[in-house]
Each structure stands twice: as structure tokens, then as C-alpha cells.
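Sample intake sheet
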Amino acid sequence: MWSARLLTLKKVYSRLNYKFCLRTTQRYLNQNLNSATPRIMDTRALKNPYTDYDGTPACTQHLFDSQGKLTEDFAGRVRSKINELLSLMENGLRSADPRDCTGYTGWTGIALLYLHLSDVFGEASFLQRALDYASRSLQCLTRRSVTFLCGDAGPLATAAVVYHRLQRPQEAEDCLTRLLQLHQPVVRGEGKLPDELLYGRIGYLFALVFINQQFGQEKIPVQLIQEISDAILASGEKLSMKRRYQSKSPLFYEWYQEDYVGAAHGLSGIYYFLMQPGFGIKFPSGNFPPCVGDARDLLVHWCHGAPGVVYMLLQAHRVFGEDQYLGEALQCGEVIWRWGLLKKGYGLCHGAAGNAYGFLALYKHTGAPQHLYRACKFAEWCMDYGKHGCRTPDTPFSLFEGMAGTIYFLADLLQPLRSKFPAFEM
């Protein structure tokens, strides 16, 4: 599967002048932005109360050992908080929207959480809970959107995996058949389908890769994944030509006529999935804007800003081996540490838990204990859930906005080298 995707990406690598693009866009931003913008970000983030990693064993000895294994005391606190929050979440879900099937705010997101907990803790009861919520999601499909997080691909793919784990092959195959019925409409871009993660082709592509990863085999033929990748490449080339951006990048993408940069709707999310390094659009603070040309240095979220861009930069470092990309990713980590405890709350999309995943990504890539330390500190913040005066999200118990996402992160912290930002990180 991956070899086929790499062949596709040779088309991109052979034409992309990333360094030229980086110089051009950074020169533009340096001319149009000023260093006062961090003060604006302070209005959206709470002051980080924690002392940063100082390089001494005493700094981390109450959190993890020299191999990165959490101490029994700290791991016990995390497990205890997971159980506490699960109880609160289940009670809160009684009033959730019964028609929301999605992974982002609905039943599929809760199914994904329990599927993850079954992996981490090996308890059959969690897999049964995943089945309960996956079955509920199949009863209220959108019939409109096709993506993993906000459409029908998520419920179908998640249910297929749950049925597979429970050794119910006929039901799993039925879900896969229905998932693949969406394939050609996605390739054709029916309904002016965009390319981004939440509502576009990348969101469907993730569902296909998710199936193969979870089944541990090529359930989805490489050819079908190749066709989606080719459609995304063709779409990016078309917009780049229309904008006359070919000298800067052969690929360019927009969503609702906006040139988004972040992971959810923008360039970094698409480039990350295509293993394509991005535009290098960055503020003097080290953060990234929500859109190309947007001079407001405001958002330090996974969906918009440095916490989502870090994954693209780390992937670029893997592919190209250039230290510049790692340096940029490390700078993203500094931004997250300073401004990542958000007044918006503790969630994944725009909250402390989602931002902490950036530290886990850096830790997996570098092995440096500083990043695991920072993730643990953000976890401590999350374990004081509700005590910081943060805003209550619209869907307070969901995976991407609410409590379920915080639980997902805390469970991942118990196995940091195996952690993955849900429905995004490969």
C-alpha cells in the first residue's frame, strides 16, 4: 500500500521547489506581520503554570523513568481519572443528539474511544461498548458527507473494524461494501467535494487506510487508494494552475474559497497525508496562520495552527531528512508549550488534549524526554478537568470537542510510543 502511494508522490517531489516556496512565503509574512501578535494569543490561552523541563532526572522522576515508562503512581492517577471521566461522559451522553452519527461530535467518536480503550487495556467490555455505539451510528448516517470524521465513511469503517474484532465477518464485509460504494463519487468529486480532512477527499482516504491498518491486511485494494490520491493530486494541480502558483508549488488547495493552512481544512493536513512538505507559512512567533495571507496570529489549535502543522513538518523530515523541517517542528512545540492551554477547554480539535498530542508526536520522532515531560504536564492540566474556568463546548462529551477526546489522550499517554492523534495521525 505504502509503496504505491510513494510512486504517486514522485509526481509531486519531482516538481515541488519547497525551498523557493519557503523563502517566498516567509518573506511575505515577515513584511506583513509584527512581533506584537503573541500578546493577542495570550487572550485565547491561559498562562502555563508549569516549570519547563530542565534536563535533570529529578524533573521527570515522578512522571516517567529513563526509558519513558510512566511511573506506577502517575499511571495510576491517569487510569483513575480515565475511569472518573468515563462515568461522567456516559451520564452526559444521555442528553446527546441521537441523530449525530459522526466521529467528530457523535456516536462514532464514542465508538472510536472505546475501541481505543479496548486496545490499551485489553478489556472485552470496552469492545462491547464500541459495538453499542457503532451500531447506533449506523442507524443515523448522514447520506450527505463521505468523510471519516464528519460523514458516513467514519461510521462504516469503525463498525467494520469492531465487527472484525468480534469475529463477525459477514457484518464487517457488509460495512466495507457500503464504504466502497462511496469510492467513485469521491474520485469524481461529486457535489463539489473539497480535498481537506473534515469534509473532503482526504477524509475518505483516511477511512480506507484506517481499514487496512486495523485489519492488518490489504482489505482495501491499493488501486482504490491510488485513485483517491491521484484525484487529490489532480485537484491540487488544477487550483495551482488556476492561481498561477506553479513556480511556488505544483499543488494548492482551498476550502470555501479560503486558503486554509491547518490540519483540519488546509494545506498541512492534505500535505501530511500525501507525505508532502508544505508551504512553510509561519509567523514570527513560530505559529502558523489559519489561512494564507491572514495576519492574525491567534489560533494555537490542532485544527488551525502549530499543533496540527507539526505532523506535516515531522513527515517532511522523515521523507527528506533535512534538519530544517525538524527545527520548524521543534519550534511548533515551543509555541504549544507557551500558548497551548486554551480557554476553549480540554478537547482534541481546539483544546489542551489535542495540543498535547503535538508533544507526543515530537517525542516519538526524537526520543527526547522534554516532549514527554510536556505531554505529562498537559495531562496533569487535563486531569483537573473543569477547574480552570474554560469554555464549555457545544458537544461537551464528544470525541473532538469534549470529554471523550480528553479520555482518549489520557489513555494514549499510558503508551506514548504507540500514541496517535485519532482519525488523523498515520
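Comment: The chain is about 55% helix and 0% strand. The chain has a mean pLDDT of 84.
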